[in-house]
Structures are given as C-alpha cells and as structure tokens.
Amino acid sequence: MKAAFFKYSMITATISLMGVLAISSAFAAKPQVFVGTIGDAVCGSKHTMDGDDISCLRTCIQRGSKYDLVVGDKVFVLNVKDQTSADVLDKLASQQAKAQVKGAETSGVIDVESVAPVR
Question: How many H-runs (helices) and E-runs (strands) does the chain carry?
Fold first, then answer.
C-alpha cells in the first residue's frame, strides 16, 4: 500500500513540476536589442571619481561593479556571462561609442547574449 502511495506521489510531483516549468518558460523575458552608452552600475551615467570617465568606469569594474547600459533616461545593469562580451564592452566604453546589446531584460537587468558596436 505504501509503495503504491509513494509511486502515485512521485508521478503527481513530476507532473506538477513539468507544469510549473512550462508556465515559467512561457512567461520568460524575450531577447530584445538595446542601444546606448556603456557605464558601470556604481556610477550609472554620471562618473564620480577623479580623472576621466573611462578611468572611473574601469576602476569600478575592477572593484566588482557590473557594466550597465544607459539608454536615454534608463540605466540597465548588464549581466555579462562571458569574457568576450566583457572585452567588447570595455573596448566600446573606452571609445565612448554606442553599443548594441541583445538580451532579455527583467526588472532593469539585461542578461547579455551579444554585444556589438553601433554602425
């Protein structure tokens, strides 16, 4: 009797988990393209340390801050998953160039899929 109850419980739990996963993936954020300038999450669009903006940005990043993307009045924190994207962000920031970031945005955080200069 206990074995049958355990088997029924496992099947019910598995089906419930599959349903939750299906629903959560349906509501997951879709990738979008954002265009803006690169900053850091500590300073945002206004760098506050002495020296130029690039030195401030690099110091903040070295101290553990995340990159961000300033798009008009909005500032999005960038969740960078690979070193290649981080290298492109650093290069574009040093050139003070606009960046095109593709990724899914949730609550002001973009999970970065790719980074490219704006042509």
Answer: 3, 5
**The predicted structure's pLDDT at residue 35:** 92
Which tokens in the block code for residue 21? 């996963």
Residue with tokens 């669009």: 45
Tokens of 93: 């920031």
Dihedral over alpha carbons 59, 50, 118, 68 (to 10 degrees): 50
Question: How many whole angstroms separate alpha carbon 73 and alpha carbon 35?
Answer: 12
Nearest to 39, CA basis, from 110, 107, 103, 119: 110
Is the pLDDT confidence value at 77 over 80?
A: yes
CA distances from 116 to 5, 23, 35 (A): 56, 32, 10
Q: Which pLDDT band holds residue 10 (cuts at 50, 70, 90)? A: low
